[in-house]
Write a structure and sequence with these properties.
With 268 residues, the chain is mainly alpha-helical. It has helices spanning 5-17, 28-39, 48-63, 75-84, 86-105, 123-128, 169-176, 247-250, and strands spanning 159-160, 194-195, 203-204, 207-208, 215-216, 253-254. The strands form three sheets. The protein has a two-stranded parallel ribbon with strand order 1-6. It has a two-stranded antiparallel ribbon with strand order 2-5. A two-stranded antiparallel sheet has the order 3-4. A hairpin with a 2-residue loop joins strand 3 and strand 4.
Length: 268
């Protein structure tokens, strides 16, 4: 328990590389062939019924039973386990790499890894695994699960878009500013934002660079802007003075492309 993770991984790595044979339970066929090549002998084929039962067990563990009831581990819970068992996780990845390297050295076809399956959307599990942060303005609050559809009123409510780098945020932000009203809507102010990008846009990582305040997502028409704050707004804990947040009275979308974003879109 007093051994540092780096030292522990180094010792485990040395022991792993000294093994003459490495096989994977999830790859029984090529593991058996590799064992034969390593020992230089032909292994006796197991009883057909026993081999069939073994293959069925491996298939069940990998893909679920006949009714498709596979053991499912949420990706974020798996990430938690990996964070707490980083040495085991790295050692297993190395074992898989050595296994595939020895297959290639023995000229045994390396099986292709199955494509990852899209996990089911489980809001309750995601919220349960989420982190809660506190700031100088108060403690964080865990989000609530709302029953769809959710009623939203752009005249008095806002959408805050938090851009997480390299997660498709630029594309999603573009979708937000292109939202349109439902055909049955009787709104007089169109929901779609008015955007005026510069004539010569810059590109970075394959997409256009976000230009702060290039879009205007109005709650009301320009001549109908309400200057009065909602009751109790003066008691809100906000950085600076309340007058600095007047843009909330004009726009329903708070994003880098509409109101601007302190510090830019993401870290340099």
């Amino acid at each position: 328990s007093n051994c540092p993770p780096a030292r522990l991984f180094g010792l485990a790595r040395q022991a792993l590389l000294r093994l003459s044979f490495i096989g994977l339970h999830s790859e029984p066929n090529v593991s058996r062939v590799l064992l034969q090549r390593t020992l230089g002998i032909a292994l006796t084929r197991a009883d057909p019924e026993l081999a069939k039962a073994f293959d069925a067990q491996v298939d069940t563990e990998a893909h679920g039973d006949a009714e498709g009831q596979a053991d499912h581990v949420e990706p974020y819970l798996l990430r938690r386990w990996r964070d707490a068992n980083s040495v085991d996780d790295e050692l297993f990845k190395m074992a898989v790499s050595v296994f595939r390297s020895r297959l290639r050295a023995a000229r045994i076809p390396v099986p292709r890894a199955a494509p990852p399956q899209e996990p089911a959307y489980r809001p309750a599990a995601q919220l349960g695994a989420s982190r809660i942060f506190g700031t100088a303005y108060g403690d964080g609050v865990r989000a609530e699960i709302l029953s769809l559809p959710v009623s939203w009123h752009r005249y008095s409510e806002s959408i805050v878009f938090l851009h997480i780098a390299k997660c498709g945020g630029t594309s999603f932000n573009k979708r937000l500013v292109q939202l349109i009203d439902h055909p049955s809507s009787s709104e007089t102010v169109p929901l779609r934002c008015s955007c005026n990008p510069p004539p010569h846009q810059k590109f970075h990582n394959g997409h256009t660079v976000v230009v702060p305040k290039a879009c205007l997502c109005l709650r009301y028409r320009l001549g109908q802007l309400r200057k009065a704050w909602a009751p109790g707004a003066h008691r809100a804990k906000v950085p600076g003075v309340l007058a600095d947040w007047a843009f909330l009275q004009r726009q329903w979308l708070i994003s880098p492309e509409t109101t601007g974003w302190l510090g830019g879109v993401h870290a340099p």
